[in-house]
Structures are given as C-alpha cells and as structure tokens.
Design a protein that fits this description.
The complex is a heterodimer of chains A (271) and B (292). By secondary structure, chain A is an alpha/beta fold. Chain A is 39% helix and 24% strand. Chain A contains eleven helices and eleven strands. Chain A is globular, with a radius of gyration of 19 Å. The relative contact order of chain A is 0.16. Chain B is mostly helical. Chain B is built from eleven helices and no strands. Chain B is globular, with a radius of gyration of 25 Å. Classes of the chains: A alpha/beta (271), B mainly alpha (292). The interface between A and B is medium-sized, with 28 and 23 residues.
Chain lengths: 271, 292
Amino acid sequence: MAILVEMRKEELMIEQPEVNKEEVYQTKDLNLWYGDNHALKHINLDIFENEITAIIGPSGCGKSTFIKTLNRMVELVPAVKTSGEIYYRGRNIFDKNYEVEELRTRVGMVFQKPNPFPKSIYDNIAYGPRIHGIKDKKILDEIVEKSLRGAAIWDEVKDRLKENAYGLSGGQQQRLCIARCLAIEPDVILMDEPTSALDPISTLKVEELIQELRKNFSIIIVTHNMQQAARISYKTAFFLNGEVIEYDQTNKIFSTPSDKRTEDYITGRFG
Amino acid sequence: MKLIDQEQVIRRMKPRLFRNTFFKYLFLLATGLCLIVLAVLFGRIFIQGLPYLDWQFMNSLPSRKPEEAGIYTALNGTIWLMVVVVPVTMILGVGAAIYLEEYAKKNRFTTFIQVNISNLAGVPSVVYGLLGLTLFVRTFAFGKSVLAAGLTMSLLVLPVIIVSAQEAIRAVPSSFREASYAMGATKWTTILRVVLPASLPGILTGSILALSRAIGETAPLVVLGIPLFLAFLPNSVFDEFTALPMQIYNWTSRPQDEFHALAAAGIIVLLALLIVMNSVAIMIRNKFSKRY
C-alpha cells in the first residue's frame, strides 16, 4: 500500500487529496509550559505528508512554540516543560532513545529572519552534508547545485558560490536558507514565518518556492499573514491562547469556519 | 492654549549653544593633555635611547660595561616566556569561556564564578607574583624558571582573556546556533564550526591585548625572584631566564647615565614589540570582522 501511495502521490494530490495519506506528525495531548506559563494546551493535531499545513493565530498564541516543539528546538529555551506525545513517522520524539540530532536530520527548519552563516554561499549549503560526514567534493558539489536549484536561487548565485552569503539581498538570503535546509534532504520542512522579514516581491518568490517544494516535502508553515495561509496551504490550524480552535482544509476555514472565534479572527475582528 | 512659549525657547537658545561648544572643547582638552604627556614621554625615551639602539645592542649579552651591554638575553627570555604563556592562556582561557557561555547553566553558581573572574582581572599583579612564588617556584619546585614565571603570568592574564573571549562568544548571534542545531548538528560541531569561527577575531584581539600586558609586567617577576642579570640563554622551560622589563628595571637602578640610556633603548624595543602585537590584533580584527 505504501508503495502504491508513493507512486501515485502526484495524481492523488490533484484528484483526491484526502485518500491514503500517511501522517508525518501525530500529537497526542501535547502541553507545554514556559515556567508557569501554560503555552500549549492539550494539542491534538495530525499532520499529513506532502501537504502544506499553515498555522495561523494572533501573536503569542503559541503557533511558533508549537512548530519549534516539532523538532524540539523549543528546548533551547530554559525552563521549558512538556507533557504528552508527538509521534513523527510513528516514533515518539520525546522518547529517551530518540536522539534530538537524529530527529533534526529528518526535519529541517527555516527561520523568521534569514540566518545564513557568515561563510561563503557554497559553505552555507555544504554545512549540513558536511556535519553528517560527507567529504567527497564531487558529491558536495552536486548537493550544493541540487539544493540551490531546488530553492530556485541557482541562476542568481552560480557565479558567486565562493562569495560571502551576506552579500545577498534579504529575499535571496532566505531562499539560501531554504536551500541549506534542502541540502540535508529532510522529510519535513518547518517554516516559522519565513516571509515576515521580506518585501512583497521576495515574499512572492518564496511562496512560489514553497508551492514547488510541496511535491517532495511535507511543509508546516507558521504565518502571521492570513492571505498567505489562504494562498499556499492545503490545511490550516487556527491557534488561540495555546489551544487549537479549528483545524481543517484551508478553503473551509476561510469560507465556512465552524467556530465563531475563527470567523472573528479571519474577518479581522481581532489579532 | 500652548504650553511652550516660543520666545522663551529662543532666549534659551544661546546658553544651550554655548554649553554645546564648551563641552566639545573640554573633551578635546582632555584628549590633548593625555597626548601631550605621552608625547613628552616618548620624546624623552627616544632622544635618550635611540643613539644606543643598534645591532650590537640587540645582539649582546648584558655586561658591566655599558658600551658592551645588550638586550639579547632579555629579549630571548621574553620570547621564551611567551612560548609558555600563549598556549596555556589560549587553551585554558578560551576553553573556560566556551564552557561558561555555551555549557554552564545560568544559575547563581555560574554568576558567582563570573563575578569572581571579573574580580580576578582587577587583582594587583604583585599578588599573582606571591601566588606564583608559593605555588610554582616552591611547592612544585620549578625554581625561578621560564615555566614558573610563564604559569604565573598566565594566571595573571587568564581572567582578561576569559572575559574578552566570553564577550566575543556572546556576540555571535544565537540565530547561527539555531540554524546549526536545526540541521541536526551536535553542540560540539556547532561550537567548532559556527561559534568559534565567528568569534575568532574577537577572541584573538582580546588575547593579544592581554598578552601585551604580560610582556610588560614586572612586579610578578620581581616577586618570583627572576634574576636581574643573567649572562646565558635558557635552553628549556626549566632554565632560569630574565625578561625585558627586568632588564630595563636593572639598568634604571644603576647610577651611571649610560645605563639609563640603555634602559631607554630597552624601552624602545619593548614598545616596538607591543606595537607589533597590537597591530596584529587590529589587522586580525579588520580582516576577519564580518558584517551580519
């Protein structure tokens, strides 16, 4: 069955998006506290593969916290406590035997502000493969080209791979960061408001790129911008005060939300 | 109804502008005074010392006869001293800074250590001399060797190196670390490949400035009993030695005027050494400092 799904993924997406998709993430009664602040409350969300799942909600509703919990980056914050389970491809990521480094090689992340390393464009992309032990120059060259092409930035940078990444514009830097993320060949890509620091034209390019990436990756994107969620995502989860208020297909959320609070938020009554 | 009377504002304008100019010249005066004192000092040293500064001076052992005396042993001893101080301080200092910044939990105990390190940076160098005398010269029986003096000097400059390295490490944006962790890098890989390269200019600048201080320190060497006069060169770190500041101190305490001139020449050599080291620090900073 899995093989069949693999083979027919493309068609299925178009014809019957709901059929036979595997969950990449299943969260079971997830709670998270920053000290005494109960930031995530009883979250039960299933996220499916090869979909773009958008997470929307007002500032401080826990949407960034949630996405950072999915690759356990949230643990970098001191005094974080969690309860409940998150299954990634059937394995509980909080399991003692599940090394966080292993999880993060499968789950890439793109941050709010472009954060390339102060290294050359080439070294930025090659960073991930290198730390995972790939030394062969030929393979690295190939990965770099493939990743940059995948992030639709190859043509802009192919002649200046040895130059410092900070010579690029903000939008290019963000696409470079996406390319860097692709270089470790992840399964899921988490994006934490990836366009909030970009101008409209760069935003458009990144959005087109995200659409393109959906074919090969599962993407979970936090966004402040409701239009963006409506434009690019297949499913949308609405967070409020650390709770999931509504989780459904995007067109349903934006046309006929079942919860009054969702409606109020998307019509701009608050947030 | 207006709360601000424009006429009064105009009337007050003149004294405000006067104060503005006044402070500008006050600060200029402060800078000028410092520079004048420095210029007088330099002028005197150069007038006194330059005639004696020649190849023979650089290349001769100390002697009772001023015309034959040279700085060779002292310069050699200072270089030997650095051979001990540089690796010891760099390894211990940067290591401690990495631990405190990247690994240590931010709790009261860490804060306590932090405050103490900053305090140690302000302890008089004589105290370090006494510590070195008890610990390295006597207890470990290293004698008045390069090793004993080098370790004492290391203790002296370590707090400065730790604090400056910590600042350099702290200045590395946390977004770099996050990017690295998010790709499945371990803490050590992140430190080695992201944090250290990005903080290296700052670490090197701070270290070189601290080492410059170690070169010029005299008090701990006096306390350790480093010889003022030595007619041979050290062959290993366990040998006795003398250093530039000791040699200068020795010459200035002699009654003859020629020796005073030699001391001035020695100071010029020491200054030159310091300028070279500081320029290297500035070059490193300019070359490697990245914009982000």
